[in-house]
Specification:
By secondary structure, this protein is mainly α. The chain has helices at residues 8-29, 37-56, 60-82, 88-96. The chain has a domain at 32-96.
Length: 97
């Protein structure tokens, strides 16, 4: 079976929705980034668990919402590392002490 192909308009729509959700998240929770890899993993795992629950509930709108939440969690994780909001080496040294 041949898979349907993504239309450019769907990509644009998805990014617009992601941006809208990102803006709402920032308005509600602020711009605080993650302070560790473990915090990033915890957030993404939490959102993934909620996605699994939505899939099991057979609610496609809820699945879409949770997919956006997973993407936002991953995006904040990426930005946290990119903006170097924490120093992984210093964290590893603290654990070794």
């Amino acid at each position: 079976m041949k898979r349907p192909q993504i239309k450019e308009s769907y990509i644009e729509e998805a990014f617009e929705q992601l941006r809208k959700e990102l803006d709402e998240r920032r308005a509600k929770h602020g711009d605080g980034l993650f302070i560790s890899d473990h915090e990033i993993l915890g957030k993404v795992a939490e959102e993934y668990d909620e996605l699994k629950d939505a899939v099991r509930g057979n609610d496609r709108k809820h699945v879409q919402a949770e997919l956006l939440d997973v993407a936002i969690g991953a995006l904040f994780g990426y930005m946290s590392i990119e903006q170097q909001t924490y120093d992984r080496e210093s964290q590893e040294e603290e654990v070794d002490e």
